[in-house]
Amino acid sequence: MPNPLHSIAWDDVRLVHAVAEARSLPAAAARLGVNHSTVFRRLRQLEAMLGLALFERHRSGYVPTAAGEAMVALATRVDADITGVTRRLAGLAPVPEGEVRIATSDSLLAELLLPMLARFRQAHPAIRLDIVTGNMALNLSRRDADIALRATSAPPDTLVGRRLARLAWALYGPLDEADPPPLARLLEEARWLSLSDALGHLAPARFLRGQVPEARIVGRFDSVQALTLATRVGMGIAHLPCFAGDASPMLRRLLPPEPGFATDLWLLTHPDLRHAPRIRILLDYLAEEIAGMRGLIEGGSA
């Protein structure tokens, strides 16, 4: 008699994995791009072929049995293998063409990267750019992005890259003729803008929590770019990266850069991709461009 395990197809494994992750048949169907009844029918057919129940129905949804967990583990291993092969094949691309996905923050994109990327595209029209912005680090090991430009003091050990500069922060406010008051008065009298809890781990946000009365904080923002824009229109004063604050003719430094707020600026990629022509040429280009702006990034000019 034929062994039913020999009849399992990759689509069967994907289906079990999708149900296990989604915990419901409709949600699994949405992930797979099929309808609910198809998932139900295929799951029942697979369980009948194996002679094993793959899921138990609980209040929380579909929970894998031991047999179901084994298939989920198989799906995870195969997915990791496919990702690894995809990375290695990408690394073998012979010419600098194709798509490069870049992950960075909205502030770095708007204030630093966009002009560089526009010039890069003019020089290398065969390379297409896919830009992903956000404050959460994407998983480059799973090809969520090919290159990341991040402000961090601890880049992941699984990535390779270059530390390009030390990203400085200073206190900025509206441009006027009066000399800025000392910090003690600013803490008590100024209207302050802050980063929200989503970025509460950053040093400027921690400083405000400990030094500025809650009543003096008139606005909170979940991105550095939004904080910068709010400062430029005069809502209040805020700590900003020097590359953003110094670039605005509407702002001036109220205090010198705070050394304790600085972080390293890293350009990162996955080891399997670093020699791919399209990745290599963009990494080298960005490193050279950012090196030319190191003085601004490190707070050397006001």
Automatic annotation (TrEMBL):
Record keywords: DNA-binding, Transcription, Transcription regulation
Pfam family, one: LysR_substrate
Domain of life where this protein originates: Bacteria
Lineage: Bacteria, Pseudomonadati, Pseudomonadota, Alphaproteobacteria, Acetobacterales
PROSITE patterns from the UniProt entry: HTH_LYSR
Gene3D superfamilies: 3.40.190.290, Winged helix-like DNA-binding domain superfamily/Winged helix DNA-binding domain
Recorded GO MF terms: DNA-binding transcription factor activity; sequence-specific DNA binding
Name listed for the protein in its UniProt record: LysR family transcriptional regulator
Assigned protein family: Belongs to the LysR transcriptional regulatory family.
InterPro entries the UniProt entry points to: LysR-type_TF_proteobact-type, LysR_HTH_N, LysR_subst-bd, WH-like_DNA-bd_sf, WH_DNA-bd_sf
GO biological process: DNA-templated transcription
Start and end residues of each HTH lysR-type domain: 8-65
